[in-house]
Design goal:
This protein has 455 residues and is an alpha/beta fold. It has two domains: 321 residues, Glycosidases (TIM Barrel), CATH 3.20.20; 106 residues, Immunoglobulin-like (Sandwich). Helices cover 30% and strands 28% of the residues. Helix 10 links the parallel strand 9 and strand 10. Helix 1 crosses helix 10, helix 6 packs across helix 7 and helix 9 runs parallel beside helix 10. The longest helix is centred in the middle third of the chain and has 17 residues. The radius of gyration is 23 Å and the shape is globular. 45% of the residues are buried.
């Protein structure tokens, strides 16, 4: 029954979707001053943010109907990867950019490698602001800029918000029609009130929520307590904090069709919200800080990232980056009204042990037989690979693999069994990750928790 339901979901996801209706500009700006309202004229023709987080693969983004990309750092250097080069490329493609300044938290900060440092936004304000203004003026009023982002998920302390208000005023002084914004996790009413109190010059708030329930709750709070334009600056399906866990504490994973359906439901909520300017889905690439199956709209054939995948391509002839997932296809159908490319990405419908369990305990250095199954709407023969992942300081990394899967194929389904050999080190955070490739540019992955150690 579960396989039938997944196949039905896969079929539903191939149905052509109609692009979202445009924004009602009069309703959008009803609570704004005339000067503030003038900044939203770009939305007057029904244009909405149909975006992604990440500023690479812009040509592919254009194919998928993406009209906005969101960056995270303000890089005023010249050359490839700089903010200026991103803006120039985006402008040529007709894509807008949310240009963002990365900002630490007020007080103590901790880096990925355990290093710590302190920040006080109430100290050396003039010097700090002058450095920021210099960056803004170096970028200028580029036609590709949609809005300025002032930090990402920074704790909403008074000192940070008051400094953000100065940043926003400095931008508006130089570019009166510019939009300014910050982002926050979810949309708690008390945090919305903090922004209104300490950063009143801000135009837009970006909300970052994962799962359709969190997105719907954030929209309710923003409509009731903010009452001005906002957008979903990050969203996707559920993260590890949403899932049930094994007895040893590792979160389970959604199968890909379930995640794709949840992303689609998030868009239903976002597009129906009266004051929501649109969204930038997370993330247009492979995200290394979490398992690749969670938030990556594009995949490489190596779970440790693009650089490792390039080595695989050179040595083993594996497909290169980027590979299109069924989750990216949801965006393309929402934004273009049709399937964005000729090929359909595959789906994995099962990843389990030979006795049907969704988890396993294996001795260090031991082996595990794994069954994996998938479907492909085009009837392509699927190729599976298996890996063992472990959670390191910088995210999930491959510690064993790839392992092959011996399979059988019918018109639209492939299944098989592979043997995974575990590392010699005990590990409570390990995962078995399965990729499915159609070798036509599509791929998908999912994971299964594994404890390497004794029961």
């Amino acid at each position: 029954m579960r396989v039938f339901r997944l196949l039905l979901l896969a079929a539903l996801l191939t149905i052509v979707s109609r692009p979202a209706a445009g924004i009602d500009l009069d309703a959008l700006v009803e609570n704004l001053t005339p000067a503030q309202a003038e900044r939203y004229e770009r939305f007057g023709d029904g244009w909405t943010i149909r975006g992604v987080c990440g500023t690479r693969e812009l040509g592919l983004a254009k194919t998928f109907g993406i009209n906005t990309v969101r960056g995270y750092t303000l890089n005023t250097k010249s050359g490839e990867g700089s903010t200026r080069s991103v803006l120039d490329e985006a402008h040529e493609l007709g894509i807008k950019v949310v240009v963002s300044e990365w900002m630490p938290h007020q007080g103590k900060n901790k880096g990925r490698n355990g290093e710590t440092w302190n920040v006080d936004y109430s100290a050396n304000v003039d010097e700090r602001l002058a450095k920021f203004v210099a960056k803004v003026e170096a970028i200028g009023d580029h036609p590709a800029i949609l809005m300025w982002g002032l930090g990402n998920e920074v704790h909403l302390d008074r000192e940070y918000l008051e400094y953000v208000n100065l940043m926003s005023e400095a931008i508006h002084e130089r570019y009166p029609l510019a939009l300014t914004s910050l982002t926050m996790i979810n949309a708690k009413p008390e945090n919305i009130e903090k922004i209104k109190t300490y950063a009143p010059d801000l135009d837009v708030v970006g909300v970052q929520s994962y799962s359709v329930g969190a997105v719907r709750g954030g929209i309710r709070n923003m409509e009731e307590h903010w009452g001005k334009p906002y957008y979903y600056s990050e969203f996707n399906g559920k993260g590890p904090w949403n899932f049930s866990k094994t007895e040893w504490g590792t979160a389970y994973d959604d199968l890909p069709a379930d995640r794709a359906a949840e992303i689609d439901a998030c868009y239903d909520a976002i597009e129906a919200a009266p004051r929501c300017l649109g969204s930038t889905a997370f993330v247009w690439g492979q995200f290394g800080m979490q398992r690749p199956s969670y938030f990556s709209l594009l995949l490489s054939p190596h779970p440790s990232g693009v650089q490792q995948a390039e080595k695989m391509e050179e040595v083993e002839g594996q497909p290169g980056y980027p590979l299109i997932t069924p989750h990216a296809e949801v965006l393309g159908r929402r934004f273009t009204g049709s399937h964005p490319v000729a090929n359909h990405a595959p789906l994995i419908t099962a990843l389990e042990t030979s006795d049907g369990s969704r988890e396993a305990v294996v001795s260090p250095g031991g082996e595990l037989a794994v069954r994996v199954a998938g479907t492909d709407a085009d009837g392509d023969v699927l190729r599976f690979t298996l890996w063992v992942l472990s959670k390191k300081a910088g995210g999930y990394m491959a510690v064993a693999g790839p392992f092959a899967v011996r399979g059988t194929h019918s018109f639209d389904a492939t299944q098989g069994v592979g043997t995974v050999f575990m590392p010699e080190t005990a590990d409570d955070s390990a995962l078995v990750l399965a990729y499915a490739f159609d070798d036509e540019g599509g791929a998908v992955c999912t994971t299964m928790p594994v404890k390497i150690g004794r029961e």
